[in-house]
Amino acid sequence: MIDLLVVGGGPAGLATAIHAARAGLDVVVAEPRPAPIDKACGEGLMPGAVHALADLGVTIAGHPVQGIRYLDRRSSAEALFQGGPGRGVRRTELHAALARRARELGVAVLPVRVGVVRQERAAVSAAGITARYLAAADGLHSPIRRQLSLDRRDPRPPRYGLRCHYAVEPWTDCVEVHWSPRAEAYVTPLSPGLVGVAVLTAERGPFEAHLAQFPALVRRLPRTAATAVRGAGPLRQLVHRRAAGRVLLVGDAAGYTDALTGEGVSLALASAAELVRCVRADRPEAYEQAWLRVSRRHRLLTETLLWVRRQPRLAPGIVPAAARLPGVFTALVNQLG
To answer: What span, in angstroms and rounded, lies between the C-alpha atoms of 14 and 99?
Structure first.
């Protein structure tokens, strides 16, 4: 019997496995798809995520990101990171770097698909593998979370994310967030000749129609995207709790608020470390409070910004307020970073 079975070999699952291997645990990852796996995401890493990856021995390339810039049709505001730069990095490059580090540590990644999870008093079994604990890192719409009846219904309108890339020289060393009345567009510098553009919105429709809400951004981009559009959503995923017996949820499977503040990878890395600490201590019941603690700032700031975003009278003032209060804007960005 192994110590930990990680279901899902994306960044959250691999980070969990790397933490476990460095802690001396016998860990196996179940992932039927070969790495790297692409998915829709903003591809900007906050400084905290860059530091956490370095602590794991994970080296990434990409493009330095010095801060966050908010823009609407009339105003702009910029907040620079005070704890070192972040990084713009393709999702595939991040995944490949984590996979390399896991291989260096001898982590076995088995090409198996996990179906039914069975728990006993002292063990959990899935896909013919028995472990003391199971980490469910199987994504935003986690089948294991659903199997364990841990999903909570969300009455609010769903939001979706769409992302593609453009072959153009980055015109800024910040992640730009362009605001329109109905959507946000994120521009992330990824290399000397490539930027990623992601749109967040509560409305259905093709990427080009959403992008047309940002004419100043459209003028900077080539007519044709360099990659196909990828989508994700609904983004918000509410969860009753992060642990059920010997199964613990990590990454997007543990619940997701929104991509608005760009902290998904940072939170996944922090919660992976907490999960492994709880497994080492044989205290799965401690994981819920640990997850709530490391995610508290992210949840508070993201929920607050989303609430303002939904208020017709307040939403148009987001960028002007950031421009009028640069110290506050910088402090909030660095709290997240």
So the answer is: 7
